[in-house]
Each structure stands twice: as structure tokens, then as C-alpha cells.
Amino acid sequence: MAQLTLDEVTKTFQDDDGEIIAVDEVSVDIEDGEFLCVVGPSGCGKSTTLRMIAGLEDITRGEIRLDGQIINDQPPARRNVAMVFQSYALYPHMTVRENMAFGLEESTDMPDDEINERVEQACKDMGIFELIDRKPGELSGGQQQRVALGRAIVRDPEVFLMDEPLANLDAKLKAEMRTELQELQHDLDVTTVYVTHDQTEAMTMSDRIAILNDGVLQQCATPLECYHEPNNLFVAGFIGEPSMNFFPMTLEGSTLKGEWFEYELSDETVAAVEGTSDITLGIRPEDIEFVQSDTSPNVFDSTVHVVEPRGNENTAHLQFDESMDDQFIATVGGMKQLKAGQRVKVRFPENAIHLFDTESGQAIR
Ligand code: ATP
After folding, report:
1. Each residue of 314-347: b (16+ CB within 10 Å) or e?
2. Which stretches make up the ABC transporter domain (predicted)?
3. How far is CA 82 from the centre of its chain?
4. Could you tell me the CATH number of the domain that includes residue 197?
């Protein structure tokens, strides 16, 4: 059992300009065996959160509990967590075997033959047994990454902490390692907190995603929930590639009026948004429909500005008014031929739109 709880965890730093709140009252329960990805833009507090769990950074306020025990003041070596860094942090003068054994030799009194057994088993699990007597300089990036993971595995930790472990790998290797890591985590069933700014990694690997912005937790939910039911404008814009399109509107009666188009809401939706007048309408690029006629409601004329072919689909940059800077994006199947300059009719289906309170940013539907 390894349930990890962050309870209003806060971290402030002091610099010349005053106090920086790096992590602001973050609360999350990470279940035994769960794979949680922490995502957010640069500087949002991801690494600081991970470092506090590892014990590498003091906690200013709040509690971190492992299986109900407060670990705030426990030194890193006693926490039974293993951290894997982006830089691998391997010792260049030691072999794979020595690198992997080092942590155990230093921090435990485990007999040498048991250490050796664990190291060899981890090398077999990671598919690097034949490299066991090589030094890091004689390994590829992906192999070094496996050694770094193996070094965490031999400690048989209750929690894996990973800080952008795949960031230095090329796209192909990254995709391979993503699958491997998932399989490994699944096989070992170890509670894992994984920091990344790569939302593909977060969407594909995690059980749940915790999205941070400015140190504040915006949403913690499954990848699909974050995608389909974002809590606020930040999550809606952060999750999804290409990003959701946003249009600022004003509600008048049952009509959302914007600079480029007017959107007619159903009675049910009007009831749901009642009381809010400044509303941001969001629609994902893949939810925009290309239609032939405009007899149905909420169909708008636009012009194709640029088309980016992506193989199985195209990304079309569209404009309501060619003379203005009002581009929005729609994705269309690869078979559909669109050309720059072409006039098209697009429909925003009501069941696909997201509505946010423009002032607070909170989702209202
Ligand atoms: P990145 O994706 O760029 O690695 P991050 O989300 O991991 O960013 P953190 O490294 O956790 O962000 O930093 C959060 C905030 O805390 C930033 O504003 C950063 O400048 C600040 N910060 C981090 N460490 C320190 C420190 N030792 N002293 C002062 N400020 C710090």
C-alpha cells in the first residue's frame, strides 16, 4: 500500500523582489498504484511539488502523508521514494552495475549478493542486461534512461517520482519509452507521480492528470475528463492540440453576441448560463463541422486562410473576416480537400461548445 496525500501543500521562496509562491495550497490524494501526471506551463510549480514529495525541498505549509503518516520532516533517504531525473544523473566513471548498486550500498545495509541480485534482475526487466558492465558514455540516450529507471527500481520504492524523464529523447524513442514506462509501472504497480510539460505524455500515460498554473491546482481528473469537461478556461486551453478556440461573447436573451457571429442557445442552455452576461464560447477544432447549407442554426461563413496537411487529417486556419486578425482552427479528415481562399460554412454544434464565465474563467456549461 502506498497512498500519497498532499494536503494544502504550499512552498514559498524568498528572492530580491519579495516572496514567490511556487506552490499554493495544493491538495491531492494519489491512490495506491496510481499513475498521476503533473502538467502545466514552465514555472507553474511542477518540479517544486515533486521535490517536496522527495524531501529535497522543505514544505512551507501543509502536509505530505504517505499511507497516513506525515513525512514532512523525514529525510529523503527514509521516505522510500525513488526519483528519476530528466538528466539521468548517472555517474560517468561507474558501470551500469555500479550506478545501479550505488544508492543501495550508500543508504542501506543490504548484503552485497542481494544488491547484485536486484541489480541484475532490474537490468533484465529493463532489457539492458548485456550492457551491465558498460559506462554511461558507451550507452545511447534511451539506454541511459533505462539505467536511470533501473536504479530507481532496485530500491523497490513505494513511490516513483519522475521529473520529465523522457525530455531528452527524440520523438521516436520517446514514444517507445512512453509505452515501456507504462508497462513497467503497470507491472510493478508502484504509485507514480510524473512531471511533464508534454501533454501527449500526460494524456496517454496517466490515470489522472493534475494541472497546475501559477502554483495553483486547476483540475485533477482523468485525461478524458480534463479534455471533455475542463473546469476553467486555463485547462480548456492547455489540454488539447491544437488548442480549443475561444470567442468572447455577451448574452442577450437567448443569443450570444460576439464580434464575428451570433450564437443561438437552446432554452436548456440559456437556463444553465443564466446570471452570467460575459461568456466565452469555446469549441475544439475537431468539433467544428463543415456543412453545405446554412438552414440549421449556428452555421457561419468563413474563409480558409491556411491549410496544414498532417497526413490523416488537416489543420485549417479559418477567418470570419479576411481583413481582420480573427483566425480560428478546425481539423478536418485528410480526404477533405480545402484550399486557401475558399469560402466555407462551418457549424458549431451546441452539444460540442463549452461556455465559460469570462470574468472568473470558470466553466458554466
Ligand atoms: P519548468 O517546467 O520550467 O521546469 P516548473 O513548473 O517545474 O517549471 P518550478 O521549477 O517548480 O516550476 O518553479 C516554480 C516557481 O518557483 C518558479 O517561479 C521558479 O522561478 C520558482 N523557484 C523554484 N525554485 C526556486 C528557488 N530555489 N528560489 C527561488 N525561486 C524558485
Report:
1. bbbbbbbeeeeeeebbbbbeeeeebeeeeebebb
2. 4-239
3. 21
4. 3.40.50.300
Atom of ligand 1 nearest to the CA of 15: 29
Tell me, yes or no, whether 155 and 198 share the same domain. yes
Average pLDDT for 60-75? 95
Residues 67 and 153 in one domain: yes
Residues having CB within 6 Å of any atom of ligand 1: 13, 15, 20, 22, 40, 42-48, 197
Mean pLDDT value of segment 246-264: 95
User: Could you tell which of 48, 85, 213, 216 is best to mutate to test the pocket of ligand 1, judged by most ligand atoms within 8 Å of the CB?
Assistant: 48
Q: What are phi and psi of 317, to 5 degrees?
A: -95, 120
Residue finishing a domain among 192, 209, 238: 238
Distance CA 266, CA 145 (A): 53
pLDDT in tens, 101-145: 998 888 788 899 999 999 999 898 888 899 999 999 999 888 888
> What CATH number did the domain enclosing 339 receive?
2.40.50.140
Are residues 99 and 21 both part of a single domain? yes
Q: Which atom belonging to ligand 1 lies closest to the Cα atom of 47?
A: 7
Which residue range is the domain that position 346 belongs to?
Answer: 245-357
Residue of 9, 10, 12, 13 best suited for mutating to test ligand 1, as the one with most atoms within 8 Å of CB:
13
- 280 and 136 housed in the same domain: no
**Could you give phi then psi for residue 21, rounded to 5 degrees?**
-90, 100
* Same domain flag for 14 and 94: yes
pLDDT number for residue 271? 93
Kindly state whether residue 181 falls inside one of the protein's structural domains: yes
- Give, as one character, the DSSP assignment of residue 154: T
Whether this model's ipTM surpasses 0.90 comes out as yes
User: Do 146 and 278 have their domain in common?
Assistant: no
